[in-house]
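Deliverable D5.2: sample structural annotation.
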Amino acid sequence: MPKGKRLTAQQIMDNYKPGDLVNNETPEQFWATKLRVAKNSKVSEGETLYEDLARRGQRIPILLNQDEKEIVDGHHRLASMHHINPNQFVNYQSVTRLGN
């Protein structure tokens, strides 16, 4: 994306494929699994990843491969942020996969 462009959680989910999607899994199943894990994964004393994002907001950017339109890292965070507010702007960083 050109500098200055911003993407919402919904735009990323609509336009970028998950980098670790399993062949027999639909995107809906994939995102439901990522959300469920985020709601059950403790990241701090007594708080899940989902709760942390809801309370403190996003601190670590989602990694996107712009060339391949792929989400490289941050699937659990993105699923949580999308569930909290699909229209919120997401911090992201453009990366290139090694070996490509």
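Annotation notes: Strands lie at 7-8, 17-18, 42-44, 47-48, 62-65, 70-73, 89-90, 92-94. The CA atoms of residues 33 and 76 lie 9 Å apart.
The annotation will be released with the project's public dataset once the embargo ends.
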